[in-house]
Amino acid sequence: MTRFEALLEQRRQLHLKAAIAAWQTIHAQLAGKGIEHELFGSLAKGDFREHSDIDLMILGKLTWEERAMVRRIAEDTASNAQVALDLFFAEDFNEKKILALLEH
After folding, report:
1. What is the CA radius of gyration of the chain?
2. How many domains does one find in the chain?
C-alpha cells in the first residue's frame, strides 16, 4: 500500500467512524420517539467510502410536526458529524420507488 493509499484508507476509516456514530445517535433518538426507520445504502451494506452519505428511509405516516422533528434530529446529527445525509419519507413515494431506493 502506498502512502497515498494509506492516507485515503485512514480518511475513509475516520469518515466511517463518524457516520456510524451519527447513525447510532439518529437511530436511538428516532426509536425512542417510536419513529419507524430503516438505514440503507452503502453504510447498511458495508460498502461505505470516503465520500459516502447516510441513507435513511422514514416509514409510516407522520404529521408535519413529526416530519420536522425527524428532519431536525437527522440533519443536525449528520451535520455535527460532518457526514452528508439523504433523508427520505416513504409516504412520499409509491411502493415500487420505495423498494428501488431500499435496494440501492
Report:
1. 15
2. 1
- We report the CATH number of the domain holding residue 56 as 3.30.460.10
pLDDT digits (tens, 9 = 90+) for 55-72: 999 999 999 999 999 999
Its domain, for residue 18, covers 3-103
User: Which residue, 3, 5, 97, 101, is CA-closest to 50?
Assistant: 5
Q: How confident is the model at residue 92 (pLDDT cuts 50, 70, 90)?
A: very high
Residue with the three cell numbers 480518511: 11
Judge whether 33 and 58 are in contact, CB under 8 Å: no
| Rounded-to-integer distance, Cα 91 and Cα 73, Å | 19
For residue 35, the one-letter residue type is I
